Amino acid sequence: MAAVSISLAFAVDPLKPSQPTKFGFSSSSHRYPLLYSCRSHRSNLRFAFPPSPSPVSTATETGGEATKSTGSYAFLEESFRTGRFLSNEELEKLKTLEGFAYFQELESGSMCVRVMRSDEMDSTVHLLAESFGESMLLPSGYQSVLRFLVKQYLIERREVLPHAVTLVGFFRKKTDGYSDGDEAEMAGTVEVCLDKRGANASPPSPTPPKESPYICNMTVKEDLRRRGIGWHLLKASEELISQISPSKDVYLHCRMVDEAPFSMYKKAGYEVVKTDNVLVLLMLQRRKHLMRKKLPPCTSLSDAVDIMRSDNELSSSANA
User: Fold this and answer.
1) pTM, full prediction
2) Could you tell me which residue ranges the N-acetyltransferase domain spans (predicted)?
């Protein structure tokens, strides 16, 4: 995936640093850019990270359980500060987001994915801006401008909770066979638009249905790539959508030139539903696939465990 279109006169492709890229920022307001889909990189994940919710159940590479947990972060307080009136349904969704956590233990470490907290915004901004700057081959002097644009976008998107959410993943390396050696670090991030109210006003082409969940802005820290982290950011996004969205048709974009991410999405069950017309090249944009996956209904914990085991097998095959 990759691309973003912003109201400024430049384009970038946060996926392949080795190629000239373009990405479209798009936002629910035209004042700020939206980063729409950064390349996903594979990596290994787990938990035991910055104050995260305590798990109710867990998924491990050897076949554990799927994970969710209850947390204590004040998402409700933050939302009320926006001055919005929240319906009972929105309050229930906020509680689900507050308690959401996805855990995974792999060979090289462990990872936890959960909703970004306000005090983690600067770290997330840095991660995204670094990824986009690298792909655009921008001089270091432009990083401050890029960080400003990304931060304005994240602030704006945070105001539409619980209709869209930014997830962050923390990775802890294994030491002597255990994942408790080094301090956990932010390894990646991904955005999930859950419904029409959380959809971007100017999404990239081909345009996904606004009422359906949409995954975008996925990126992984450079020195942690190719370990499966991107795969599990994707799986965490799907897990959250299964819990909170009535629609099970999930969409994402992938540039035609990005063979590795395309292969990963195909292995995860996504199919191409539409591809950009060649005329987009005249707009200095890369052609993209719009891909869709229908999530299976998860009716029990055992079903979730079976799905997680299947995901682990696919992840291992992708990392081989």
Assistant:
1) 0.73
2) 111-296
Token readout for 49 is: 């990270």
Which member of 36, 102, 214, 265 is catalytic? 265
217 — phi, psi (to 5°)?
55, 45
Residues 6 or more apart whose CB falls under 8 angstroms from that of 56 comprise 67, 68, 69, 70
Cβ density class 206-221: b for 16+ within 10 Å, e for less: bebeeebbbbbbbbbb
Q: If you count them, how many residues does the chain have?
A: 320
Closest CA to 30 of 161, 203, 147, 148: 203
What is the arrangement of strands in the sheet containing 271-275, beginning at the earlier edge strand? 59-60, 101-106, 109-115, 164-173, 185-193, 214-220, 249-255, 288-294, 271-275
- Which amino acid is it at 157? R
Instruction: Please give the distance of CA 258 from its chain centroid, rounded to a whole number.
Output: 17
Give pLDDT tens digits for 232-253.
999 999 999 999 999 999 999 9
Please, what are the domains in the chain? 87-300 (3.40.630.30)
